[in-house]
Amino acid sequence: MSSSHRLLGLVRLVSATLLLGGCFGQAELEVDGRPTPSEGGPGPGGPEEAACPSTGIEPGPSPLRRLTRFEYNNTVRDLLGTSLQPADGFAKEEESLGFNNNAYALNVTLLHVEQWMEASETLSAAANLDALLPCQPTASTETACARQFIETFGKRAWRRPLEAEEVSRLLAVYQAGKARKDFLTGIRMTLQAFLQSPYFLYRAESGTPGEPGASVQVSSYEMASRLSYFLWGTMPDATLFQAAESGELVTPAQVEAQARRMIGDAKARGMVAEFHRQWLKLDEFSHSTKDATVYPAFEPLKAAMRTETEKFLDYVFFDSEGSASLLFDAPFTFANKPLADFYGFTGPTGTSFEKVTVNPSLRSGLLTQASFLASHAKPNQSSPIHRGVFVRKQFLCQQLPTPPDNVGAPPDPSPDATTRERFAEHTRNPACSGCHSLIDPVGFGFENYDGVGAFRTHEGTLSVDASGTVTQAGDAEGSYVGAVELSRKFARSTYVMECVATQWFRYAHGRPETPQEQCEVLSLKKQFARSGFNLRELLVQLTLSDAFRYRQPAPAAQ
């Protein structure tokens, strides 16, 4: 059968089971009705604590959230026990505010539909049905066994119990498949239907019944999914399903107990690594290239540079005291011998990575690691602009205008001028100074590091000026000399720590914060501060917030 006939036949077959088509209109409505992100970054300008009401729950919107490629692969792994990763071949998500899980940017195209269909066929064909079926049928019990499979597997696939009408429709899919060949064909066809359903591909919510127009608490099954996809990036496990069935995901204490359990699970490390991959743009580093005549050491060390950052982040989050300040002022990093030689560290003797103490006058946390410095540089030189932009966006939560189309090419390296001297034209040019007066003074402070992160005091015979200034950033403002001093300034800055909390809020909710949530976000930041800016505690507090435990009511029927 040709692929086109196969597609037509399958779509006709599964359309009766509320498959993909029902989601297009809702997705478009959510995009058209997206909230406007809060302007500027966290810090000055937010509501005073006294202005925030002590009563009333006003969660932000809860848009329909489609599984990302990361979440899809994890979900089919845990649902089917497969090692296949079909989502690696899916169309990439569009990023918004630095993350690819923003619900308002996860539009659906025909290409997505085709890829989901093909993935469902591949996964159903490879599935170990002996492990998935709850029964071994005889000829007289096949229909009963199929029904049992639909009810038990369906609860896991759709993350909630199925309604009687849904069971009946899926049983019709099974019967159509069985009529084509046999029992297992019917089961595999039903499996395809499950995997193409919006209830699998999306995280649909309705909340618990409440007063008309009032915010509604998410149901126990919805809370199980919120917890699992936030903290693990995958479907709920058996413990969460049992808690949902027992109605034990209702109170803050019940939610907190599960959140703490889950953060201690190995799957949380994968989710945190995914957050860091996106927040810190680690893939951009992996895709970066350098002029081998200028930086011959880069390519052989590239993989090690990324591994350093990944191991560092994992350790800070899970194996240290967990303070976000360590991201900027940690006196240690991770290196193998080749990378240690590049940095001038002592200790490692082989290819395995070890925790090492850094030279505190040259290195301090993320901002002095080669992966950051090389990623935000040109192929043949450093780039104060790229480094300054990244710091403003990712660590100060400030959005900058898109550069004009007629922006000039960066100045070529010259033995007669330092990088700083050549790039200083931006702040002198009236057409550029508006943005570059914010960007360049931050980026210039990194000039002690070349285009791959090696420390330097000279460019050729010219002395490097690594003095910098941060403006419009609350208690992070001020002058500094060198990235080590900037890093320590950031480690002590409440403004920077609040940006870290904001980034996690956006990732957890798959959307930006809204003006109506200013008090909610302020409360989260204050709790983060009271914990000593503990990252693990930040995740727990996110799950206990009203924004996480409640949702806006569904629109009234027209």
TrEMBL record:
- Please state every residue range assigned to the domain named DUF1585: 480-548
What is the species of this protein?
Stigmatella aurantiaca (strain DW4/3-1)
**Where is the DUF1595 domain positioned along the sequence?**
145-205
Q: Where is this region: Disordered?
A: 30-62, 401-425
Protein name as annotated: Cellulose-binding domain protein
Q: List, for all copies, the residue spans of the domain called DUF1588.
A: 363-459
Occurrences of domain DUF1587 (ranges): 65-127
Keyword flag Signal: yes
Keywords linked to the UniProt accession: Signal
**Keyword match Protein transport:** no
Span of domain DUF1592: 219-344
Give the source lineage, highest ranks first: Bacteria, Pseudomonadati, Myxococcota, Myxococcia, Myxococcales
**Where does the record locate the signal sequence feature?**
1-27
